[in-house]
């Protein structure tokens, strides 16, 4: 054919397969005219063999040793001709020393996955029983790049305008009540886009969707006989491949198309897509774990090792990826660039990101090259980068994570402060004032957009359980309730667990509404956990990583059962989007810089203009001046919020408005259904403009118009 | 079931009738047939799938290939596909690139 370049003609042959010297870059397997270019790096292997399988066959049909002259530096590269792109599965054997004390664990008997594989076979259908005797369980495959994105590109919504919804692909639509055709898959999420829009969020953050193995550490709960699996997926097998078992078409190998279709459709509906990415460790575990890829390809490069050759365990899961090794750093960069450009991903949340700032010996770096590279990367320039700014090795960097003007953080201090304030702890009013403003104490120069605010996330109690349980109840995990966090800052509202007591249930709903309200009126970026808008419970389990069971899936009948919660969540999300004064990209200045007669933010207490900062106080009110919205660039209504976490009602004197404006009631969580929150624009006039009796453990929002 | 394919091109309309199971091996036959009819630069591609019981990812790829080969001006009609094939087209987003119809002419 005329369009085949002459340099793609084969020069070598092995067992009837034709090949030639390949290109060193890009790493991985790349389709080229008439063939596939393979390129793989290993700093310490002495030889490498390419292993080729027909899809699903037990034994390889060919093994081609890389001729010595095909190695350039530490990179083995070869172009092989006449391969069937659809049916090919490939892997590598690496020969080299097995000397753990020197960091090497080569084993040429193991067929290794390509760290740069774009599709991985072997776990094609969720929880389908694997072939445990497979000589090559996680099989590298090729991905096609022919997806038609039409005019789609990442949305680039200003980060302060986002409301994030953290979700689990499987948990979202697996429950029978979801009535989804493709339960628990990317296609299932697509069918629920109308729901996400009606809720009012504009960004979803998917818990790990890189290929992982749900069978990793699977076991049976001795008490219940239930199978426990790796449900959350915080254990990466391959960084470039989407989880096949999360695609209804995974068994056809079409997971790439299905995921891209979902992202395209979400973008059409104005919803951004963030990925929760796990670069701190891999599924290979410690020295007792399986060799899947990295360990056998170049153990010393990919992992942080102790001087004795064991694995540092800053992740709490056995090993630690050696992120600040220049080669590993490039892999992380290549990976994120791939997801940003090929999947149009809008942002990334980095699991245990403090690890990414550790040196190869584990010590924290003041100027970590990986974090700097990500912050300044041209392809990631418009992506949101969010750090979980701590790790399991005790490094806690909330407020001090190396940000380079780019990185935002999961604000763990926001979560802890708001939870304690909600349950009535004292001594928190001053700190609450900081959290409501986007934590200027933590991010003085970075602005409120550095703060991802949340009260509940996948890790810990759901919002409902935070007000229904004092203690965790993780017995179902089969670890004698020893797993999961103990510092939940929760309060059961008077009874441990579910109850028919109407007063307790009213209080629980009120507390959920209080939490959602505080979240939505705080500067920074709010994130809510899937199901919290409808009172989802995990029965007091605060660590459901292994629970692929009905009670852990989102029960959609709660939308009706807890209709008041769902309605409240919808309205409070709309309120945030309708009021730019709640979404400032910069910190408040605490004075009037536009001549409106009011400072941008002012604090109040039961007396107007006199907040009670005392140690015993449980009240705080604040007023946001609408003329100062987004730094005075947009006019909005002035908003007043009063938080009363004392158990009795208290009278709050209201700040006097300029002539012509009156206070209207948007929300009052102490009221019963339908009176608790109003339509935007239809807020009823407040009768007594001078003051408001705010119920015990209640929040009100007033708007001036 | 064995895969068979027939084709004809009349007045810039290419009609292909596919029968049996379109797996990754038979997808090559399908692709060859597409390449053959492409030589006559059709503006419409009509695929009769009434008797096609399975379409693999490789078969779906050939649909994408058809557009690439004959240009975005090509209109693709898929006539009477079975439910399982429609389902796969929907899940992978390919239903936006084709017209699923009960008969041709529409």
TrEMBL record, chain A:
Domain Glycosyl hydrolase family 13 catalytic span(s) in chain numbering: 134-576
Pfam families, per the entry: Alpha-amylase (PF00128), CBM_48 (PF02922), ISOA1-3_C (PF21156)
Residues passing through the membrane, by range: none
Organism, as annotated: Runella aurantiaca
Keyword annotations: Glycosidase, Hydrolase, Transit peptide
Gene3D superfamilies the record matches: Glycosidases, Golgi alpha-mannosidase II, Immunoglobulins
Annotated Low complexity bias: 483-494
Region (Disordered): 474-494
Superkingdom in the source lineage: Bacteria
Protein name: Glycogen debranching enzyme GlgX
Molecular functions (GO terms): amylo-alpha-1,6-glucosidase activity; isoamylase activity
Annotated GO biological process: glycogen catabolic process
Family in the record: Belongs to the glycosyl hydrolase 13 family.
UniProtKB/TrEMBL annotation, chain B:
Superkingdom, taxonomy of origin: Bacteria
Pfam families from the UniProt entry: STAS (PF01740)
Domain STAS positions: 3-106
Molecular function as annotated in GO: anti-sigma factor antagonist activity
Record-linked PROSITE patterns: STAS
Gene3D superfamilies: STAS domain
InterPro entries: Anti-sigma_ant, STAS_dom, STAS_dom_sf
UniProt record similarity statement: Belongs to the anti-sigma-factor antagonist family.
Protein name (record): Anti-sigma factor antagonist
Origin species: Runella aurantiaca
Lineage start: Bacteria, Pseudomonadati, Bacteroidota, Cytophagia, Cytophagales
